[in-house]
Amino acid sequence: MRKRVLGRSGIEVSALGFGCWAIGGEWQDVQGNPLGWGKVDDEESVRAIRRAMELGVTFFDTADVYGTGHSERVLGRAVAGRRGEVVIASKWGNTYDETSGTLTGSDASPEYVRTALTASLRRLGTDHLDLYQLHIGDAGLESAAQLREACEELVREGLIRAYAWSTDDPARARFFAGGPHCAAVQHQCNVMEDAPELLMLCEESDLASINRGPLAMGLLTGKYQQGRRVGHGDIRSTPPSWMRYFTESGPAPDWVAGIESVREVLTSGGRTPAQGALAWLWARSPRTVPIPGFRTVAQAEENARALDHGPLTPGQLAEIDAILAPH
């Protein structure tokens, strides 16, 4: 249970990965809206990553755009001298200005793949990535065909071991899976947002299901239902149109109600709500690898110790389905 495989690549990872969006710190779009999770303490981020490793976490997922390069730098620093102990995934496709910390657009050209990868390798302090993921979820299939071939060339050169697409569209994920070294699809999935089509695709195509949003951007921890507020510079304080978990006035009431209705099942066996949410994903499919975010050692420890509890039972899955049906 503590280990899983990244699809057809054969790359073994811990069943729990750590998502490195939050440790990128503050960054913004061209209108000045926050895209990060607020201010971070880089020393605490490094300590959290190393503590996660001590507790058995080997898979870390970042992106070049997180903190406009800062997340990759922090992760690279944390694993320096221990590169062989971890599996590193990053993403490309967004363009940004590192000086101002601003997202500027996107680039789906095959030429940009190598440019972006070279920069990521430099920031991470490594000579290869284990998994490289397209970060433009709605890119066209014509572009995707060229990008898939570009990734195959990078595999041949030894610069990446495998690749994937971060997309919630099963048709796009299926298309990318046609490449021999496509190993996964990264997609949204949590207790409140099941993804049956994508999970079925992963089973049929021998892909790993890398789950972003496994804790619904913090809602599934139960902490925001207790009156906790997000801080300035946090994307959840000015939620973009795609974010359903939070509104400008706080947590979305319908989400809070649904989560509260399954709290008792999620916290069975002494689990915290967050650990229960991760346990649901592991029970949902043997191919899932959730990647919750973190900013502190305490968060890293809580998430990593979910591995000790393992997945929910089939009966508990069915019970949650029945409870959430009205929602």
Walk me through what this model shows.
The structure is a single chain. The chain is an alpha/beta fold and 327 residues long. Helices cover 36% and strands 17% of the residues. The chain has helices at 42-54, 70-78, 110-124, 141-156, 170-176, 196-205, 253-261, 263-266, 273-284, 297-304, 306-309, 314-324, and strands at 3-5, 12-14, 17-19, 59-61, 87-92, 94-97, 102-106, 131-134, 163-166, 182-188, 208-212, 246-247, 250-251, 288-290. The model has no long low-confidence stretch (mean pLDDT 96).
Q: How is the secondary structure organized here?
A:
Layout: E1 3-5, E2 12-14, E3 17-19, H1 42-54, E4 59-61, H2 70-78, E5 87-92, E6 94-97, E7 102-106, H3 110-124, E8 131-134, H4 141-156, E9 163-166, H5 170-176, E10 182-188, H6 196-205, E11 208-212, E12 246-247, E13 250-251, H7 253-261, H8 263-266, H9 273-284, E14 288-290, H10 297-304, H11 306-309, H12 314-324
Parallel strand pairs: 3-4, 4-5, 5-8, 8-9, 9-10, 10-11, 11-14
Antiparallel strand pairs: 1-2, 6-7, 12-13
Helix pairs in contact: 1-2, 1-10, 3-4
Structural class: alpha/beta
Number of helices: 12
Mean pLDDT rating:
96
Q: Could you describe the largest sheet, including whether it forms a barrel?
A: 8 strands, parallel
Measured as a percent range, the helix fraction is 25-40%
Shape: globular
Radius of gyration: 18 Å
Overall strand count: 14
The fraction of residues in strands falls at 15-25%
**Helix-strand topology string:** EEEHEHEEEHEHEHEHEEEHHHEHHH
The neighbouring-strand order within the major sheet is 3-4-5-8-9-10-11-14
Q: Separation of termini? A: 30 Å
Uncertain spans, ≥5 residues at pLDDT below 50? none
